[in-house]
Amino acid sequence: MKGKIILLILGIVLICTGCGKKEPIESLYRDAEKLEANILKNVNTISQCRSSYEKILLEAEDSEFAPLACYKLGKLNEIFGHYDEAIDYYKKLLSLYPEHPICADGLLSMAQIYQLHLDKNEEAMAIYQQLVTFYPDQTVSFEGYLQLGQRASRKEDWKDAVAYFEKLVAIYPQNEMCDDLYFRIGDILQHKLEEPSQAKEKYKTLIEKYPNSTWIKYSKERLAFLNEGGN
Amino acid sequence: MQNRRFTLLIFLTIFIGFFVSSCKESKPKGDEFAWDPDGKSLAMINVESQELLILEIENDAIKKITPIDSISGDKVKIYSPSWSPDGEFLLYSKASKKTLGIFVYSLSENTIALIDNLPITENEDFKGKAFPSWSPRENQILWVAWNNQGNNRIFSCSPDGSNKRLLANVMGDEVMPTWSPNGEGIAYAIFNREPNENNGLWKIKNDGTNHQQIYKAYRIANFQWSPDITSIAVIHENETTTDLKFGLKIIDLDGNEQQILTWEKLEIIKLDWSPDRQKIIYIQEEDDTRNIWVVDLTSQKKVKLTFDNLEDYFGWAGQNQLFYSVKYPAELVKQTKDEKERREFSEAIRGIKKENILMTIVNFKPMKLDKNIYSFTYCRQNNASAYFKLFEPDFLHSIIYFPVIEFSNERKVYLARSKMEHVSSADELYLNQKYDRTLNHLSDYWNIDLKSADFKSGFDVDAIIKEMNADFDSSRYRLLLEGFKDGTLLKTLMTFRKLDQKDKSEWLFEQYKKLTFHTFINKENKQDVLDEVFWSMIGAYGRYNEFDSGIKDLDFILAADTLDSTFITYANFAQAILAFENNQYNLGLEKMKSSINYIPQDLADIDDMEDLLSLYLVNLKTENESLFISIIKQMIQKLSTNENVSKVYEILGDLYVKTGQQDKAFEAYQSAVVLQFDKNEIWNKLLETR
């Protein structure tokens, strides 16, 4: 009898467990189906969107909308994972409309494709370099300086790293990362380049310019340490 | 479409062979222009005519053009003109199939001296064998005399060939002697394919003394003295096959390495110092992909300036400005066969061709300047530039490169010498709405002043035909007929209209009509002649974007009393093409209908009509469907014995597919395959209707 009860309980537990597993998987499947239906609904829209941009590029190559259409076509290809096509569109944008500000966005997208999707870091860095050289004042160039600064840090080219980070804080003083970067510059100057007086300047600037920064406490500690002759 | 063009090519090659031969493609190499040291004269090789010219420049205008030399006999090409430092002499080379002659033209004496005559093989590209050069500080020429055993002798001499001095005797495949910027020294490279301890960079004094190997390397691919003469930048190739095979370095004059600028996997083919010695550009190449990189010598940072699409590098224009061209980006938008054909058709009608984009970078700001530019040469002294512009003059797809001088006031002068160059210049000016200057070039084409009252003598068809009847070789007749067939007569007429010279344009149109009728009346090969006449007409109106005028002019021509059916067919067909290109689809179909109404049953070539119908079908609107079907049916009825009518059935089938009438489509395709049963494409379409 006792054995039967145990078997019954086990049976109920198994059924419940099975049901419990089935329910979420089925609902997952149903959700996926709904999403698929939505995607299919949108396929035509995507195709129409692409055709319209293509029409602009083909029929009005010299219009003000052509560079934007060219960029958008790159972006559409990028979204759908057609990275080579996306890069071709960005290259076309940069060759045909080099004066247009959207080129900076094109370069950033191209660098990110090389870096994140094609695993070609050196190519990506060359493009970040183009971005900060050709379009130094564009907002999207922030990412270029940051990537080049980080690469220089990884390669322990500390002077280069400081130069890139200093460009960043000079061009984009309102960026929310500026306090982080000031502390990073101070840190490199203090510990890698052994320039305590320059490091002190950076910590001071951080304290003055970004009084609400989470780095204030640490900057003050470092400043005190350096003022006492430490390095 | 390809078929049509092929057919046209054959017709036109036969009929205007002379004309075509005068516009054979001759792509500029990049060494055709040379500004003299003070920017007051420009030496140039006209690539079309292979003439060497000197242009005197004054107040942003060409004051005088002096032809210096041209090819004759077995000579095939003129190369690389360069000015002596005092601007008194012009050095250049002239190749035949077997020799390369080095010549110096003296401006004051108006004489040409032969300096040397060197053996070459046919089609030699002279790689590794530099052309002769002037010392930067005195009138001394430096050149290499070679033999086929790899013995290169470096010589110098005076411009008249006197004071010839042997400076060095070098065994090797490449030499590349180069003066230092102050003319006191000469650097040269030695390269032997087998490893050799002499391989590398050498220098000597300008009197040939003090030979010194300053850098050992398997191969120096290229080098350049720094502007301040403190160092030499070299591109050298490692003999070992490591990943990083090509290096760019700066070495001092004692051979010590100052700076390694880069090591690269891909071949570096050229370098160039910036005038302020702060930067070096280098060009990297892999297969068809070339890029310019610039290295900042202080920070050692390098930036790629191009996007795998460099075509030509033209050099620095100042401390921070560079000129170069990139290939025109390939078409990326995927097009259907129909769309592609529509585009090709339009480009052919309008004579549009895009090959490259001229770019400049000023302080690292890239800018697009112009399209289809070759051999761009900038002169700092007068802020002017000279270049060749590629031009596709007609639907014949012949290509010419015509020279342009652009002055500091942005005024462009089209330096036309040949008839083709005058037509190209006229086209460019017409499209830029500079009609008065268009007329100047057309005057040069016709050898008659079109602005004068007696211009009529060159176009009086009755008188000229009478003259031709008396003298079959009448030059006036030949020129008039040539201008008629290449579309220049129409272009002249359109220019008169733009200038509101009504009397002249109306009179010329009358002559044009007479000549049109004259060209086909009593001709045995009437269809071929008409094909040629009407396609040249379409090309002229298309090139000038004058589609409405074209349709209207043809209406006037069609109003004549005595026209035969073949002529009417062609004229209406030409109107249908012009209307199509002008997006007047309804009018175009009406003209097509009129054309087919008169179509002679023996008309052999209906490919062009079928192609146009296919294009119309792609753009067909519902309201025009019945008109389109009636055209097709009429064509089938008229050409029932022509085996090419199979294509018309196919178009009919395509129309029915487009309108969802699968059964009718099947029947049409069935009729098509019965006539041409080996056409797989039609079979596939037929089966798809089931």
**Range of strand content of chain A:** under 5%
Strand order of the largest sheet of chain B: 1-2-3-4
How large a portion of the residues of chain B is in β-strands, by DSSP E?
25-35%
Query: Total helix count of chain A?
Result: 10
- Label the structural class of chain A: mainly alpha
Quick recap:
The complex is a heterodimer of chains A (231) and B (690). By secondary structure, chain A is an all-alpha fold.
Model description:
The complex is a heterodimer of chains A (231) and B (690). Chain A is mainly alpha-helical. Chain A has 10 helices and no strands. The mean pLDDT of chain A is 89. Chain B has 18 helices and 32 strands. In chain B, a hairpin with a 5-residue loop joins strand 31 and strand 32 (412-414). In chain B, helix 4 (419-431) packs antiparallel against helix 5, helix 11 packs antiparallel against helix 12 (565-581) and helix 16 (645-658) packs antiparallel against helix 17. The radius of gyration of chain B is 31 Å and the shape is globular. The chains are: A mainly alpha (231), B alpha+beta (690). Chain A binds chain B through residues 54, 57-58, 73, 85, 88-89, 91-92, 94-99, 126, 129-130, 133-134, and chain B through 301-305, 307-309, 326, 329-330, 332-335, 343, 357, 359, 364-368.
